Amino acid sequence: MNVIMMGPPGAGKGTQAGRFASERGLPKISTGDILREAVKERNPTALEAKARMDRGELVDDATMIKIVTDRLARPDVRVGFVLDGFPRTVAQARALDELMQRLGSDPLIVVDVTVPEQELVRRLASRRICSACGTNADPVSAACGKCGGELVQRTDDDQGVVRERLKVYHQSTRPVLEYYRERPTFRVVNGAQAPERVAIELDSVIADAAAARR
């Protein structure tokens, strides 16, 4: 099962992607996580890419395609995967289709998690992550529930950057949804619900899409 989780920043797609992948024994592939790991290793390409992310800009197609292609070459993706944060442009979507054809993989299941923009800004402005392990945390918590580290605001969650990220999303990533929309395995989920309701709806639409590809 190969799943793409789409949706604007703050829609909760990363949380849902992690839950879905964990419950089904699939690797969750997040380009943001891959880049942050590379930044810790002082990789020059990753450092420049991270600087662009912090400004709310998209990383160039060639860099992102290479990152994902290298990741999908690992043995653990033979059982399938859940992609979070890729593709973000039509060029990346086409490159992924070509890669899937070369690998002889099953059709992609694409899920769009939708949330009103005002709610997205509110969520992102209050979001906190652990400075030590990078885990998303409850904004009312005093410390990370996973490792006890200090909670901080992500540099790309500043309100000005948030609005720039949403502008970039609408300009560059919305066309990707149109690229996938007519496929029988494309589905939409209401991300403005409580997380547990989103999870139930997500599981249902993915099961339906999996049946449709047969």
Short description:
The protein has eight helices and eight strands. With 214 residues, it is an alpha/beta fold.
What does this structure look like?
The chain is of the alpha/beta class and 214 residues long. The protein has a single domain (2-117, 174-212), classed as 3-Layer(aba) Sandwich (Rossmann fold). Helices cover 51% and strands 14% of the residues. It is built from eight helices and eight strands. α2 (31-40) packs across α3 (44-54), α4 (61-72) packs parallel to α5 and α6 crosses α7. The radius of gyration is 17 Å and the shape is globular. The mean pLDDT is 86.
Give the SSE map.
Layout: E1 2-6, H1 13-24, E2 28-30, H2 31-40, H3 44-54, H4 61-72, E3 81-84, H5 90-103, E4 109-114, H6 117-126, E5 128-130, E6 136-137, E7 151-152, H7 159-180, E8 186-190, H8 195-212
Parallel strand pairs: 1-3, 1-4, 2-3, 4-8
Antiparallel strand pairs: 5-6, 5-7
Helix pairs in contact: 2-3, 4-5, 6-7
